[in-house]
Design goal:
Strand content: 25-35%
Helix content: 25-40%
CATH class of the largest domain: Alpha Beta
Distance between the termini: 65 Å
Number of domains: 3
Largest sheet: 8 strands, mixed
Length: 428
């Protein structure tokens, strides 16, 4: 919020979108209006700045979306005119008309709907933001799709410009962002209904979003999907895979918080006691039992085919120590070995530990770009393989081969002929 001599500017969140409202409160009659934007999906926020003239008629704000690089805009309250004063450019160029950016709303399953504290109204639908190349989208559920989510600490996933997304989208991969409960995308009530003893709602929301994109939007199939989460979003990835192992073909879990129960019981670890207000104190039996029921490490399933997984961690990470994902990966590998490398339930489980990295990954601009390239090469490779297998399954032809064997025997003066017909059905 910024306060001026004749008006106040307030950030507001409406239907999951971050926008701005101007309050003309220093007049005889208070008036308000929201700043309109051309795009239907966007984020507009006040910058951190000092020395703003108190008696100014104008103010600055930052505007962005999936298709609009960050802009600094000056808005005049009296004339209601906007002027771009600074704009980030895309060196390679960007034509927004080639892309579609839209939202769909996924009904929350009836059995996971819970009231918010103090009777605060809460939405019964989960927003999912989609970005894709309009000319590359195919019909009949044959599109590869990559979905991300976070859903923790009341932190919202606002729609902002990320150039790296286009490395996927320009290859025909649909990018989806699920705004699940536990985040602050739809306000405080949205957060409250996805924390403590409602934390599992975050996981079931993600599964509901994936199934909606398959069954209702008919954009993809589970074996053509990949998914990605970071930190508490890595907890989401681990829990979702235990709930529905066939939800996707590939998963990226970055610095994932997967040993939730053990970490939460050790107050010497940084942030542990702070987390008790988010997930509960495991020293209390009710909280212990609830954490035990969804902690990814404790709920790894035996003899189950999981997606192929890439896990990243940092040796210097003080928030999610490297040993958390390391022991999770080790247990996952042990649960799937089952006597040999060729076992049908064995998945790829790759882990990369950045020796000089922390919770934010590699430090330095180029090191982070290389890390992103590694993650995206994994995702693209797995989705390409999934598409190839899907195409092969659709083009296989049914071939029926019949073999006839005639056997003649002479018993005394009688001749007996036995005809054996063998029918073999195969696909090529």
């Amino acid at each position: 919020m910024n306060v001026f001599k004749e008006f106040i500017v307030v950030e507001e969140r409406l239907n999951g979108l971050l926008g701005l409202k101007v309050v003309l409160c220093f007049q005889e009659e208070v008036q308000t209006f929201s700043i309109p934007f051309a795009e239907e999906i966007y984020s507009a926020a006040l910058p951190w700045q000092k020395g703003v003239p108190y008696d100014s008629d104008s103010f600055l704000f930052i505007y962005t979306s999936f298709l609009t690089p960050y802009k600094t805009i000056e808005f005049n309250v009296k004339t209601k005119q906007s002027k771009v004063v600074k704009e980030k450019k895309v060196p390679s160029g960007l034509d927004p008309s080639l892309y579609t950016m839209r939202r769909c709303f996924v009904p929350i399953p009836e059995n996971t709907r819970v009231p918010a504290p103090f009777g605060t109204p809460v939405s019964d639908k989960i927003p999912v933001t989609l970005l894709y190349r309009t000319d590359l989208v195919k019909s009949e559920n044959t599109n590869p799709l990559h979905m991300t989510a976070y859903g923790c600490y009341g932190y919202p996933l606002d729609v902002t410009f990320e150039g790296k997304f286009f490395s996927l989208v320009d290859r025909g991969i649909i990018f989806a962002m699920a705004h699940v409960r536990g985040g602050g995308d739809l306000g405080q009530a949205w957060y409250e209904t996805g924390k403590l003893n409602h934390k599992k709602n975050t996981f079931t929301d993600f599964v509901a979003c994936a199934e909606f994109l398959v069954n209702e939007e008919k954009l993809t199939q589970h074996h053509l999907m990949s998914m990605q989460g970071l930190s508490a979003g890595g907890l989401l990835m681990g829990a979702v895979m235990n709930l529905k192992p066939d939800i996707a073909c590939a998963v990226v879990a970055a610095v994932p918080w997967v040993d939730v129960l053990n970490t939460s019981m050790d107050p010497s670890i940084p942030l542990t006691t702070v987390e008790w207000e988010e997930i509960g104190n495991p020293n209390e039996k009710e909280a212990f039992d609830y954490l035990f029921s969804y902690s990814p490490y404790e709920n790894i399933r035996e003899n189950v085919k999981y997606p192929n997984i890439l896990v990243t961690t940092g040796l210097m990470d003080s928030r999610v120590p490297y040993w958390e994902p390391a022991k999770w990966v080790a247990k996952m590998r042990a649960s799937q070995t089952n006597g040999g490398e060729a076992h049908p339930n064995k998945s790829i489980l790759a882990m990369k530990c950045v020796m000089a990295g922390g919770h934010g990954g590699s430090s330095g601009r180029y090191a982070q770009l290389k890390e992103t390239a590694m993650v995206y090469s994994f995702l693209i490779s797995e989705l390409d393989k999934a598409q190839a297998l899907n195409s092969l399954a659709k083009t296989r032809k049914k071939v029926t081969k019949t073999t006839t064997t005639t056997k003649t025997t002479i018993l005394g003066s009688k001749r007996t002929t036995t005809v054996k017909r063998i029918t073999e059905v195969s696909y090529v």
